[in-house]
Amino acid sequence: MSEGQLCYEPIGVIRTAFESPDGMPIQPVGDTAIEGTVELKEEYADGLQDLDGFTHCILLYHFHKSDHAAPLKVEPFLDDEQRGVFATRAPQRPNPIGLSVVKIESVTDERVTVNGIDVVDQTPLLDIKPFVPEFDVPSDVDTGWLTASESTIHSKEADERFL
Asked: Under a CB-based contact definition with an 8 Å cutoff, are residues 85 and 73 in contact?
């Protein structure tokens, strides 16, 4: 590995019903009933101990189906204006890393069953972290250009913009 380059090995894979991003919810809140399975490699299974005491977790993953071209300005799903990629949740990024907060349904052996999943099937999993509101939800928040209502987010699905 050369200086300045980072290398990560997936710790598992995320299984979902989505063969491609087309028609998938754009965020986990888009459809909280969609179930998925997080499957860890056997050597990481012990790391799941005590995760079942949390209601939600954060999944960090590699956008393996995203085009590697990463424009610095994109038209995000909830807008019709060009925005800086770092002010969006667009999947095409200089480092194609995704993040989803999902509800934990069960933890067994090397599997975590979750609801509210918004990723493509066989997405490489980089890490799992417990969601802790006191750590992860700041009290004074401004969402910049994003003024979409919750109902807009719930009805929006991925389209050809990032396929």
From this structure: yes
